[in-house]
Amino acid sequence: MREATAHLWITGPTRAAREAAAAALPFPDPVSVDCHRGLRGPYTGAGELMRSLVPRTHERGPLPGGTRLSILAAAPDLSALLGAAEATLTSAAPPGERTRWYGHERTRRIANGLVDHLAAHPGPHTLVLHDVHEADATDAEFLAIALRRLDPARVRIVVCSDDDTPLAPATAAELRRRAEHRTAPAVPDTSTAEFVGADGVGEPDETYRQSDPAARAKLHDSRADELEASPVWSWRLGAIPYHRARGSSPEAGHAAYESAVDHCLGMGYYTAALELNTQLDELLGPEVPWPARYRQLRRRGLCLALMDRPAEAEAAYYDVLSRTTDPKVHTTVSYALSVLFTRLYDAPRKDHVRALAHINTAIAFIDTLPDAEDRAFHTAFMHNGKALVTMHLGDLPEALRLVDTALAAVEDGLPPARHQLHRSVLHHNRAQLLARLGRGDEALDEYDAIVTQDPHHPEYRFDRAVLHHQQGRFEAASADYAEVERISPPFAELHYNRGDLYSAAGGGDAAAEFARALELEPARADARIALAELWLDDDRAEDAAELAREGLALAPDDPLLHCVHGTALLALGTPDAALDSLDRALGLDPSTAGAHANRASAHLALGHHEEALHDLTRALALSPEDPDLLHNRGYVHESAGQWAKALDDYTRALELPGADREVLEERRAECREHLESPGTGTLS
């Protein structure tokens, strides 16, 4: 069998045509899954892949922690085989006490963890994914990453989609880049599956359309009962709500959708949560009582905000405010508006003063709340929100005072067992503020306490590792990063930070960490630059140049990538090409001292002494305490026979920390010798 050199993309007008084309592939034992989100919602396809493959691979040894957590997120029913995911205060919070939501990047981490598993057990496999044009955003994201990362010679992905429905942009881009495209020949559609049993995927058949409505409802009830008895839990996120909504009990349909929305919100599957919430809105109709309508509207705004769509979230929040005079609603929604303006909007729309106005409105309503515990909680919550705004306005001491006020409200006004999650959030915020204020030991005490309280929440350990690194506690930082890797799906920032730690302190392979960060997120320019610089130090200039070129294909206007590309070209002995790249870097950002210094080296290699001196002088204006820049300018002066100026630069360099004293003393001696020689003047 010939090894595949590309993934495969099959398009055709009907499912039958695409299935026939996939079945004709000359690959043995393919794993075929359906990605239609109407079946099992988020990770319909990826979850089914894991249910098919993990039992085969589990016998080979325990899974890495991050891989295991990713698999359990996509296929929670595999907990019977892998063990349940460890609880955090976030995952275990009662519904009324959930005050922290996962960032939208969480699903990328899960997707990379799933791909790690496929890459670690590469088969060879052929994975056939049907109805990708109907996939949930989580499956589309997983597929784009899998197409990029997996070698088709070991794991060949066959994507089947229709001719007309646009795929998710990232998925479509990876298919165009990495897949061979084939059009499925037309075949008769011989499917005889009845519509209810197909869980609503496809068009209703004639038998379904002509059947009695009450009889149809009973069929849907029966199918929902059957799916609820299935060991595959995720039917509750797709087919079960679909059937309950078409069954004999409207209330059961509403409850099924409510449950699915809440689960997707809690897991960070915001695209699915928004779609399910919209479907619930259509079921509820215009006459729904206000409490149900408010839940639906509030969740819509929350989904939009968490999906980084703040303008739409803002409109949704004003819609809520326009419908009620309930002070509790105005308190909650004013807080949400404040977060939009202080955190979520991009720079042109960000407005901390407007955010302050909204949070002050929220605080003004608190005293109107009749319940004492409710007032205590909202006092804590809103003052914490005001601390965020105040921090962004630059008043860190006042932000810390506001967090302390929030903590006092919780401690004085709530029973000890209530709102454990939000207490940890407040202490986390306090730790971050103390660190920013330079009170590192106090910040570490806060981190130690919340890590003890919530040991499986990775963010606390990650932030503590950063603080350990900043304070020179390299072993403690390394230990925290190792634990984060165990309790979190994989993410690039962890590996970038650990590479930075190894670069500073040794004790590990920094290049491998930066390479892993790029494997997970190729668009991370900081990891690409750091790895290229390490390769330059290891005399791997060609590899560094190629790494920079790949980065520039993703970010053509990144000045630091142009700078490292020029540096690599200079090391390869092509100063003309290096000069072009360094000119581009400085054209994009003239404040990059390193680009001026490297362009000076290119000019010097080409014999342009004046240009080299100009660049080094500019670099020194940007970074006056850099002894290497003075050393280099001294060398240029020396190359031009300007011995006195060279001696002056070498002498000034010796006065700065980090100077290479031995080499500088040698250069100064050389300058003195020339200055004392006949015809060159005397040393003054």
Give a brief description.
The protein is mostly helical and 684 residues long. It is built from 35 helices and 5 strands. The N and C termini lie far apart (82 Å).
Descriptive account of the structure:
The chain is mostly helical. Among the domains are: 7-191, Rossmann fold (3-Layer(aba) Sandwich), CATH 3.40.50; 533-624, Tetratricopeptide repeat domain (Serine Threonine Protein Phosphatase 5, Tetratricopeptide repeat), CATH 1.25.40.10; 625-684, no CATH class. The chain has 35 helices and five strands. It has a five-stranded parallel sheet with strand order 2-3-4-1-5, sandwiched between helices. The termini are far apart. The model has no long low-confidence stretch (mean pLDDT 94).
List the helices and strands and how they pair.
Elements: E1 7-11, H1 15-23, E2 31-34, H2 37-40, H3 44-57, H4 65-74, H5 79-82, H6 89-92, H7 106-120, E3 125-130, H8 137-149, E4 155-161, H9 169-178, E5 179-183, H10 206-210, H11 213-228, H12 239-245, H13 250-267, H14 270-284, H15 290-306, H16 310-323, H17 327-344, H18 352-365, H19 372-392, H20 396-413, H21 420-436, H22 440-453, H23 458-470, H24 474-487, H25 492-505, H26 510-520, H27 525-537, H28 541-554, H29 559-571, H30 575-588, H31 593-605, H32 609-622, H33 627-639, H34 643-654, H35 661-676
